[in-house]
Design brief:
Layout (H helix, E strand, L loop, with lengths): L1 H19 L5 H12 L18 H14 L15 H12 L6 H17 L7 E4 L2 E4 L3
Antiparallel strand pairs: 1-2
Protein name: KAP NTPase domain-containing protein
InterPro entries: KAP_P-loop, P-loop_NTPase
Pfam family, one: KAP_NTPase
């Protein structure tokens, strides 16, 4: 009987040790590894979905630390508290160009745009970027 207890306890210890090394989110980490190793960027983002408080932010912050230790850069966009699509669009630009996205530069850009529109009669809202060219929109 004592032998069975010892065997059972060893079995439980090994089982627990092997389970500690396997994350329930291992498949997500494997996909992120694959995604980050692609030679050509797919020009897409990865969205993590899950219940509130399940650890999405913690998980991605841990993964970003792993990337940082490999001298790889990443962009992080949180949808928490986002009120418009433009806030989502602006976030990567703000992370890539913090000086250009600063409040002072945004204000300077608006002043310059107002000057162009008022003094030179150029309305930048009429010019739209599409792909690799500029297109004027009709009124």
């Amino acid at each position: 009987m004592n032998f069975i207890k010892k065997f059972f306890n060893r079995f439980i210890k090994r089982l627990n040790m092997s389970q500690e090394n396997i994350s329930p989110n291992n498949h997500i980490e494997e996909y992120l590894d694959y995604y980050c190793s692609l030679f050509c960027s797919p020009k897409l983002a990865v969205l993590l979905k899950g219940e509130w408080g399940c650890g999405k932010t913690w998980f991605i912050n841990q993964y970003r630390e792993k990337l940082k230790s490999q001298n790889k850069k990443s962009l992080y966009v949180s949808l928490y508290g986002v009120n418009s699509y433009s806030e989502i669009e602006d976030s990567p630009f703000q992370q890539l160009h913090p000086i250009l996205a600063s409040k002072q530069m945004v204000i300077a850009g608006k002043v310059f745009k107002g000057f162009l529109k008022g003094a030179l009669k150029i309305d930048l809202n009429m010019v739209k970027m599409k792909g690799h060219g500029l297109f004027l929109s009709q009124r």
